[in-house]
Amino acid sequence: MRKRELGITEPSITGFLRKVRAKRSRAPFRGTGSFSTSLSTGVGPARHDRSRRRRLRALAQCGAMRKKYFSLKTACQSAVAAFAMGVLLQACSVVGPPKPPPRPVPTPSTPPEAVVRYEHVGWSRLPGWGDDDLRQAWPAFLKSCRSLRFRAEWTSACTAAQPLDAQSAKAIRAYFDRYFEPYAIVRQTGPLREETGLITGYYEPLLKGARSASAQFSAPLYAPPADLLTIDLSSLYPELKGKRLRGRVQGNRVIPYYNRAELEASPSLRGREIVWVDDALDAFLLQVQGSGRVQLGSGEVIRLRYADQNGHPYQSIGRYPRRQGRADGGAGHDAGHPAVADGESQAAE
């Protein structure tokens, strides 16, 4: 409760007490008129005592009220202090020690990118260079020069190769030492250096065959069947440029073309045989390779090249035995069976 709510202020109490003390120090009432007459007749002192007692009672009440007010003020201040202390203690008990900062999450490091480069090395680094008979490779190199000689970087080397003695291994080795430089292919992945790897190359297998079928030559190589359709949709769908569909007509619909097993049993290949060879597996590998040569009994050599495919996805011959559950890798399996793979090329002259 505040002082102004009681209608009493501290300055008014102090002023009242000062007036009381001043009146007590003065002579008993000085006045004129009716007030003086009452003193002379003996009535004035009684009234004065009653007035004095009223003032003293008022003074006592003011003092008690002031004491009560200050007691209430002290109690309120104590209650506020106790409440603040309670809140502080409760905060201390709930918050506790500060939590440690979260540990940073390690970001996965990006593996270094592999870089393949060529490093110039000497001929001595080339395995077998000093022992190989280069005369066996020389005819193939001269055939390559028939087309390579028109390129500026090959003109001088191919021109110098023409008059060289093809029977002198020493002369051929000296020719390559002069016109060519060996390079090592190195794969660098961070600190890891790799100098070995796998390089694939193209080759043309040479098979033994005949123009007609026999007990010895029973595996045919075919020209593309006449009912094989090649569908190019790039004019309608530019995003399909370079992609062609293979199919055949059945009634008024175009359906996927035969797979290898179906094709061997269908009449589409009858009359399309080019040559028969003596090994079904060799015939299959020639189809996968895309080209090859067949030497006839007369010595004549027929060169076959890629012509078309049936549109089915290629399936590796090495995976076929594993899909069949053969742990031995398919030893003894007739790998040339038509059901082994789809998507092989058909050969044509």
Structural class per helix/strand content? alpha+beta
> What gap, in angstroms, lies between the N and C termini?
119 Å
What is the number of helices?
10
Largest sheet: 6 strands, mixed
Number of E-type strands: 12
Q: Strands of the biggest beta sheet: in what spatial order?
A: 5-9-4-10-11-12
| Shape label | elongated
Helix content: 25-40%
How much β-strand is present in the residues? 15-25%
User: What's the pLDDT, averaged over the residues?
Assistant: 75
The whole-angstrom Rg is 59 Å
Compressed to H and E, one letter per element, the order equals: HHHHEHHHEEEEEEEHEHEEHE
Which parts are unreliable, with pLDDT below 50 for 5 consecutive residues or more? 1-9, 29-43, 329-349
Oligomer: single chain
Explain what this protein looks like in three dimensions.
This protein has 349 residues and is of the alpha+beta class. 38% of the residues lie in helices and 18% in strands. The chain contains 10 helices and 12 strands. The strands form 3 sheets. It has a 6-stranded mixed β-sheet, covered by helices on one side. Strands 1-2-3 form a 3-stranded antiparallel β-sheet, with no helix packed on it. The protein is elongated, with a radius of gyration of 59 Å. The N and C termini lie far apart (119 Å). The relative contact order is 0.08.
